[in-house]
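Quick start: load a record and inspect it. Here is OsmC family peroxiredoxin:
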Amino acid sequence: MKNHHYKTTIQWTGNKGTGTSGYRDYERSHIISVENKINIEGSSDPAFRGDKTKYNPEEMFLSSLSSCHMLWYLHFCSEAGVIVIDYKDEAIGIMEETTNGSGHFTEVTLHPTITVSEESMMEKAKELHHKASEFCFIANSVNFPVKHIPTLLVK
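Running the structure step on this input writes:
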């Protein structure tokens, strides 16, 4: 077995001068950094006093699931001779907020639209979503279903 290690830095930038002196006295803004990469501006969801112009953790989480599935899918297509010429996913996640203010995702559904180069590739292209789901590192790390409802097109 092989281990892979990842490192990110989160820097809170929302101190408006009095720190966390009160719930409404600070911004939820922060910078997500990874060495040698562009910074990402983050905040909380607007429902939790966040900045709607910045990415929130829930969106980043959903994007991670979608991206991981896509990368595995493209990998398996390339191995199987399925030529994908376009891929776009509109992922939807449901997070349940509990009465004490905590919460958790209950499900995610990926809605990828994939265009392949030939009609003869359609069946294999559809089938490979199942394999991508089995291999996705992020999907294998969550305790809720990650569904996929692909739409396949031919150029």
